[in-house]
Write a sequence for this structure.
């Protein structure tokens, strides 16, 4: 009998770093054992990751959604997301990875919301297919990044910052996001509050589950937090909190052998029966039904 899988491994960026522990850009084949030993194994990163699959075919499961990839596909993963790569043939491509401190994507004053929107959005990730002309532009930037990493000329970190930002802007345009942001939608204060709120959810969703909890941390009224959330994302603050808790529950149900009771305690629920009712209310499936359905889908791939 196989060992019970109870945890989802967290991988740190230094395991991939060849020169700079805060920024990595590399061909997938050059990542070697560090990368390929995790093929087929669900895990999380504590850093931002961009995969560009140029050639080959694979299945990439992000949280609980499986994408079939053939060529010229970009994946954007935020820290904490669970993902699994399943290769059906040899693949070629690149990985770009960086820690939050390198780019400060959660800080609205440091980088455009367009760029951070590639990682923080209602789908929790972005999957983008490039055409031939777009691939040429993207590859030129990636090769310049690799050159900067290899030569480490004076102020190379500044050059990497600029290249990464340009990369994200180009991909944002490809994705179809508007570069012009209206003052009504993205007033700097409201955007900053919203990004802080999303960050606080990541840090506290196991303990704090009400809008009032987060409004108190932000020193604003719950009704204002809901208004800002609706304005910038289309859904209420309460929905963001619930969605994050449900997503983590789905991650454990999909990627581990933990029971619903064990998952409930991991997520801060004192009553496992309440957790099951909560999960079914917002997904229309009980935890056991979700686990069974996800295993059926997994076995069909």
């Amino acid at each position: 009998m196989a060992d019970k899988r109870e945890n989802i491994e967290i991988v740190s960026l230094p395991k991939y770093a060849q020169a700079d522990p805060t920024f990595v850009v590399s061909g997938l084949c050059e990542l070697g054992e560090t990368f390929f030993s995790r093929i087929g194994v669900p895990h999380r990163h504590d850093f931002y990751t961009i995969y560009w699959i140029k050639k080959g075919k694979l299945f990439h499961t992000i949280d609980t959604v499986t994408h079939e990839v053939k060529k010229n596909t970009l994946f954007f993963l935020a820290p904490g997301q669970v993902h699994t790569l399943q290769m059906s043939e040899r693949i070629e491509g690149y990985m770009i990875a960086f820690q939050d401190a390198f780019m400060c994507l959660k800080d609205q004053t440091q980088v455009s919301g367009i760029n951070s929107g590639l990682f923080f959005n209602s789908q929790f990730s972005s999957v983008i297919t490039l055409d031939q002309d777009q691939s040429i532009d993207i590859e030129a930037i990636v090769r310049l990044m690799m050159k900067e990493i290899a030569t480490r000329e004076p102020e190379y970190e500044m050059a990497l910052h600029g290249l990464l930002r340009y990369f994200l802007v180009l991909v944002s345009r490809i994705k179809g996001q508007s570069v012009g942001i209206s003052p009504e939608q993205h007033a700097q204060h409201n955007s900053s509050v919203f990004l802080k709120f999303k960050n606080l959810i990541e840090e506290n969703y196991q303990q704090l589950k009400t809008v009032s909890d987060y409004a108190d941390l932000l020193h604003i009224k719950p009704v204002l937090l809901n208004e800002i959330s609706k304005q910038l994302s289309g859904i209420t603050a309460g929905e963001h909190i619930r969605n994050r808790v449900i997503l983590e529950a789905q991650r454990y149900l999909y990627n581990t052998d933990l029971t619903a009771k064990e998952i409930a305690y991991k997520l801060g629920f004192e009553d496992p029966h309440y957790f099951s009712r909560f999960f079914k209310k917002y997904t229309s499936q009980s935890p056991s039904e979700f686990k069974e359905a996800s295993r059926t889908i997994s076995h069909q791939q």
Q: What stands out?
A: Confidence is low (pLDDT under 50) at residues 107-114, 177-186. The beta strands are 9-11, 23-27, 43-45, 48-55, 58-62, 65-69, 73-77, 82-87, 92-98, 126-129.
